[in-house]
TrEMBL record:
Keywords: Membrane, Signal, Transmembrane, Transmembrane helix. This is diguanylate cyclase. Gene3D superfamilies: 3.30.70.270, Periplasmic binding protein-like II. Residues 1-26 form the signal peptide. PROSITE patterns: GGDEF (PS50887). InterPro entries: Diguanylate_Cyclase, GGDEF_dom, Nucleotide_cyclase, Rev_trsase/Diguanyl_cyclase, Solute-binding_3/MltF_N. It is an enzyme of class 2 (transferase). Its EC number is 2.7.7.65. Residues 597-726 form the GGDEF domain.
């Protein structure tokens, strides 16, 4: 027993020693690897191994923080580096397209971590697996754990784009049209919290890490389907380099299981250890240059924060004091008149930080947020005589006030687009409007509303409803101070949990005394009994009718969905048709106008197609078109769109792709079509014209340029790619 304990301690110690010393020392528990003469010669010819990752934000698997690569995979590869005696240089790109380009061109030795699939094994070599992940769904607590989320009609799902499981999610979802993709897991979860989507699908380890680091409450994880969906990731190596595959496999297999278990415990089961790390030297240098930060608050938001005799008071004041005591910088209050004034001051540069703010899709473009330290429901304040609002989505033409600039304005407009909303500068202004019957109620968070209503200053009013939204509050800083938000997260972890809870409970514990008017209660109960009796009698008659109506509605909905799909699908090849492509191009140009991403198209023509029909018959010609479309569809990205442009022509729309990379894709597709025989028709070829969206941002000239390039390719002998390059002004 003692011997096993000592062995485990030594193994755990070796993991952290290797990490701290940059994997320079040899692990005494690992025997020297025996390489072949060819493998050793290859190692001797290299000064370092260049590994590239597609994402730099895949916490806790692999991510970049302060310019340093971190995560489970990084620490595992560092041990492999020690085993094979070759340093590792890491790099990352922001798109799959760029990563594959660097991989194909030999600018990187390998990609990691990459999920192994049968298709990918045709184009790359893979090491033994280094990571196993399980796919799960993150849903609000109110959604039962046993429900099949994917089968819910019109459920809005979110995934991170360019992931292996994106296509699988679309296959299982009842309506894949409601599947939205996001660039980062942080954006994905923020969209869920804002109500833009209903559920998030990702690897379990990633979602657990996000929940823990961002202190997310009110959500839980459920299985993707009844069967477990696990993915094995490995290091992908180019087919031209089998020696590297063998070398890395030996380095990976040499790691003891106990060491791998220790790494998994650190990153996947006990993430708090990694979060509690002290502030780095890079962060300290940033703070030394910063020295002082001006901040703004809401001066009229009791009990969370307000100004009293010119002094910052409330929950956020106590929290800021705790943070201040742990940082070598000063926080200086910039006074404002109201919350909207504070937001404007931040935009004008008069302050750089908001102590209590909630993230929205709009704000994320302008600010960086710390983890949330307070969550509170969004409620509706009404007069006591008004009936309780159980569902704001069905209340008809009621008018509601809200505090201008508050985050829930954006949340409410997303979740309840039909509500009539009117802005006010403060809680008091909204309440006076309710007293004057200008509105039927106003929206606020539960803590603020309870504080005011329980004070005795607002008799005759109550919390008369609850929206299906929560407000998560944290500290926001301008984009220029993004490192400060990460530093504040480290500070949060240094404050003992009991102290954090004490600060929150000091200001959010509200005692509400409820009184009951007995006479009114008897009347209400009598009326309620009559209503219940009527409902029971009505339901008895209507139940069967509703069941039939529901079945008819479901059948009609299915028929409409099938008709809608048929309207944009080519009946022969089962890919998108001309209408589908026109719609996609319009949407991509709209995205281009907002984000200025590159956009290219590939116009493809099956060479000598008339001869195929004349020689083999139209049935074989149809099979050739089907085979070409299938090969094209199987070898483009999830973000690319393929459709039949007409006759034997196909069009591929490539977002975020410049002309040169589009040409690389075109050549790859041309070779794939030409390398394998078609059923009954033998080897066939295609010609491709490539063009890029110009400054005019119009689709017709872009397609015309691709058509000119295609004509050039066919005129030069076919089975080739031609590029339309615009002349410089």
């Amino acid at each position: 027993m003692i011997r096993r304990l000592l062995t485990t301690i030594l193994l755990l110690g070796s993991v952290f020693l290797l990490t701290a010393m940059g994997s320079v020392l040899a692990d005494p528990l690992i025997d020297e690897i025996e390489f072949t003469e060819e493998e050793q010669a290859w190692l001797d010819s290299k000064t370092a191994l260049h590994l590239h990752t597609i994402r730099g934000d895949y916490s806790p698997v692999i991510y970049v923080e302060g310019g340093q690569f971190k995560g489970f995979v990084v620490e595992l590869i560092n041990i492999v580096s020690n085993n094979i005696g070759l340093p590792i240089h890491y790099s990352f790109s922001k798109s799959t397209e760029q990563a594959i380009f660097l991989f194909d061109s030999g600018q990187t030795d390998a990609l990691l971590p990459v999920v192994t699939t049968n298709l990918r094994e045709h184009y790359a070599l893979f090491t033994v697996p280094i990571l196993e992940e399980e796919l799960v769904i993150m849903v609000p607590q109110g959604m039962p754990a046993g429900i099949d989320v994917l089968s819910i009609p019109n459920v809005r799902l979110g995934v991170v784009g360019d992931t292996t499981y994106q296509a699988e999610v679309a296959r299982f979802a009842a309506n894949s049209a409601n599947l939205s993709s996001y660039n980062r897991h942080e954006d994905l979860i923020t969209a869920l919290q804002l109500g833009a989507i209903d559920a998030v699908i990702a690897a379990q380890s990633v979602l657990q890490y996000q929940i823990k680091t961002r202190n997310i409450k009110g959500y839980h994880l459920v299985p993707f389907t009844n069967e477990k969906h696990r993915y094995h990731s490995a290091i992908a190596i180019h087919k031209r380099n089998p020696l590297l595959q063998s070398i890395l496999n030996k380095g990976i297999r040499q790691i003891p299981k106990e060491v791998i278990d220790a790494l998994e415990d650190k990153w996947f089961l006990n993430s708090s250890d990694a979060l509690a790390a002290p502030i780095s030297d890079i962060d300290l240098q940033f703070l030394a240059q910063l020295k002082e930060v001006d901040y703004c608050i809401d001066p009229q938001w009791k009990p969370l924060e307000w100004l009293e005799n010119g002094k910052h008071v409330g929950l956020s004041a106590d929290l800021l004091s705790e943070i201040q005591s742990r940082l070598p910088i000063q926080f200086k209050l910039h006074k404002t008149e109201h919350w909207q004034d504070s937001l404007e001051a931040l935009k004008r540069g008069q302050c750089q930080m908001l102590i209590m703010a909630s993230a929205t899709l709009t704000r994320l473009k302008e600010m960086s947020f710390s983890r949330s330290y307070l969550n509170t429901p969004i409620v509706i304040v009404t007069k006591e005589k008004e009936p309780y609002i159980a569902d704001a989505a069905t209340i008809g033409s009621k008018r509601f006030g809200y505090i201008q600039g508050y985050a829930y304005e954006e949340l409410v407009k997303i979740r309840y687009p039909n509500l009539e909303l009117k802005p006010y500068e403060s809680f008091n202004d909204a309440h006076k409007a309710l007293q004057r019957n200008e509105i039927d109620g106003y929206i606020e968070n539960y803590i603020v509303s309870s504080y005011h209503l329980s004070s005795g200053d607002y008799p005759g009013y109550r919390i008369g409803g609850r929206l299906s939204l929560d407000m998560s509050l944290g500290i926001a800083v301008t984009k220029e101070l993004t490192p400060l938000s990460k530093i504040i997260n480290s500070i949060f972890n240094q404050i003992p949990a009991q102290e954090r809870e004490a600060i929150v409970s000091k200001w959010t514990t509200v005692e509400v005394i409820k009184t009951i008017n007995k006479s009114a209660a008897i009347k209400v109960i009598s009326i309620a009994l009559v209503i219940i009796a009527v409902i029971i009698f009505s339901n008895y008659k209507l139940r069967r009718f509703n069941q039939k109506l529901h079945k008819a509605h479901h059948a009609l909905q299915q028929a409409n969905e099938e008709l809608a799909q048929m309207a944009v699908t080519d009946p022969l090849t089962r890919i998108g048709n001309r209408a589908y492509l026109d719609d996609i191009i319009a949407k991509e140009i709209e995205r281009n106008l907002r984000y200025s991403h590159s956009l290219s198209v590939l116009l493809i023509d099956v060479d000598h197609f008339k001869k195929i029909n004349d020689k083999f018959g139209h049935q074989v010609g149809d099979e050739v078109l089907k085979e070409v479309s299938q090969r094209l569809a199987s070898n483009i990205r999830q973000s690319d769109s393929l459709g039949r442009w007409g006759g034997e022509e196909f069009l591929i729309i490539c977002p975020e792709t410049d002309l040169d990379n589009a040409a690389i894709l075109a050549e790859k597709l041309r070779e794939i079509i030409n390398e394998k025989e078609m059923p009954e028709a033998g080897i066939q070829s295609i010609s491709i014209g490539v063009a890029e969206l110009a400054h005019d941002r119009k689709p017709e000239p872009m397609i015309a340029r691709a058509d000119q390039a295609l004509y050039q390719a066919k005129n030069k002998g076919r089975n080739r790619t031609a590029i339309f390059r615009q002349q410089a002004d």
